[in-house]
Amino acid sequence: MMNDDAPTPWVDPQMRRVLDRMLEKMAARPLFGTSPPAVMRARFAEDVLAWNVDPPALPRIEDFRVATGTREVAVRLYDPRGDGRPNATMIDFHGGGWIVGDLDTNDRARRLLALESGVSILSVDYCLAPEHPFPAALEECVTVTRWAHRSGVARGIDVERLALGGDSAGANLALATALELRDARQDWLRFLLLIYGAYARDATSESHRLYGGGEYGFGTQAMDLMWQMYLGSRGAADDPRAAPLLARLEGLPPACLIAGRLDPLRDDSRRMAAALIAAGISVEYLEYPGVVHGFMSMTHELDAARRGTRAAADALRRALTGPTAAVDSTARRP
Which residues are tagged catalytic? Predict the structure, then answer.
């Protein structure tokens, strides 16, 4: 068996090609978090173009806005059926360290997830830090989620079959949103899909030590800068709404957690999976060897991302529409 925590861990050959390209770009730029937000966002938008090559067609993709107390939030609905009938839906929050990212960040990956699961995906363009520090993004995510349950049927959303999902910072927001709803005794969520999330401001884990130095792209120093900008001057690292690993987790819906082995945040997912299980929550944990943070967005180039998407789609389908026989036997469960 491969020892992925060895001094020189195994890297998926497809991942190595992508990683070398990422590292070359990073070497020519200032450290993430040290440039103005507009510059970081423009660079990130340029980088993710490679993630979104040749997006598959869907019967219906609709952009619209949802009113909140302070602004209208842009959202995008990926409907894999397009027949006008309400469909099971996952409300999705993109990654980007709460600082960068938008509706286009995971466009290809979310199209594939919708097609392979049969579930609609409602992607949310929540407000970004540092201009809008914690808890602004969380409040928008909660508001949009409540809108989907209250009024989504007019947009083709089955309000009785709702899930929350997200990757990286988006997984943090999805879990924190679920906790807010639980505390308000709004227990209508059916499922959580949490992909390599940041669940606490803690860089002491083994995965940070092994993979946080920048050799695998995203690193510990960048993560700490993101936490600083997200929390701002008023947020606290021990607030369970910002760090859901510190929250009481009982009463949440079933969850699927996905992680990459060579990710500084890998142990966030391991710890969260263990904490959810200890709280009595049904959990499926999938960990993919040889891949780095963000790998699930790289479906155009990585077989591992396509396998992960199929596994996520299967979990989502089972939770919202019924059983299926598909199983991902390539992911490793610690």
Answer: 168, 263, 293
